[in-house]
Amino acid sequence: MNKKINFEDDIFMLLTRIRMIQDSITLDVAPELFLKQTLDDIGFIDQTFRILLDELKEKQYLIEREDLLDQLCNSEEQFSRVLKELFNHEGNFSIRGISGIREKLAAFRSYSVERQKTARKLSLADESPDSVYVSSDELTQLLKAF
């Protein structure tokens, strides 16, 4: 995978896909035509959220990390809401009578909630004053310019 990740664009694309799923469940479409693709999209979104969160965990010194974690968390919340709507048969896209779907949706929602918790913890840790410090060597180097 390309090591340079543009987190903001990736999160935007995930939100676009989530909105597409949200829009599709309000339409009166035949689940047998669109269900497989919708589930594939949900799996893709789930996997991409996991990858982005793992990358943000590793990049502790990324300048906008706290904001990106907040964006990721908000996007996860929206994803979780869409999964809940599908699970509870809200909207016109009905999954009733299709075996195994409810279990898959419940698992994806559980993963999403766990990632939200992790992102919030990381974001709160980034906010703490203890996480930002300047060593005496760094301070000496910074002050040499003056």
Can you give a write-up of this model?
The protein has one domain. Helices cover 73% and strands 0% of the residues. It is built from 5 helices and no strands. The chain has helices at 7-26, 31-58, 65-87, 101-127, 136-143. It is elongated.
Fold topology:
Blueprint: H1 7-26, H2 31-58, H3 65-87, H4 101-127, H5 136-143
Helix pairs in contact: 1-2, 1-3, 2-3, 2-4, 3-4
Question: Summarize this, please?
Answer:
The protein has 146 residues and is mostly helical. 73% of the residues lie in helices and 0% in strands.
Shape: elongated
Helix content: over 70%
Q: Note the run of SSEs as H and E.
A: HHHHH
Largest sheet: none
Summed up, the helix count is 5
Mean pLDDT: 84
Secondary structure: number of strands: 0
- Structural class comes to mainly alpha
Rg estimate, integer Å: 20 Å
Low-confidence stretches: none
Distance from N terminus to C terminus (CA atoms, Å) equals: 42 Å
Beta content: under 5%
Q: Main traits of this protein?
A:
elongated; 0% strand; 5 helices
